[in-house]
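Let us practice reading a record.
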Amino acid sequence: MGWSQETSEAKRSPDWARWQEVMEVKCTVLEKFGTWHLKKTPPNANIVGCHWTFVVKWDAARAIVHYHARLVAQGFSQIPRVDFFKTYAPVAKMASMHILFAMAAHHDFKIHQVDVKGAYLNGKFEEGKVIYMHLPPGIHLTDNKTLVL
């Protein structure tokens, strides 16, 4: 379990150096996967905002195990058919999971759980369909203020 906070709150925290470190790591991962490219802002483009959410995860003894930062696009500012397209996210329903577990138990199968970090990064946009996003707050990606992601 953990708790969450926004960037302005995190900046006032004594842990701000840790938050900045995990933000930089997250940005490095996102860039490595080709999630974004720095581009000059196109004319008449809708630029989606973004913000960070931060979570501290503790163990049973209430010792900090992990600091986690997630960059969240503010999708509510997207415009249908301009930068909002049909989306699909494969998610298993609980009823399906219950059947799977019942079958595994019945046949004495072993089950392994895997947490895939950044699984959503494997999605592909159709040719010509691009979403533009403001630079993430609290992180330095470029000095050029005319660039967006």
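A brief commentary: The mean pLDDT is 80.
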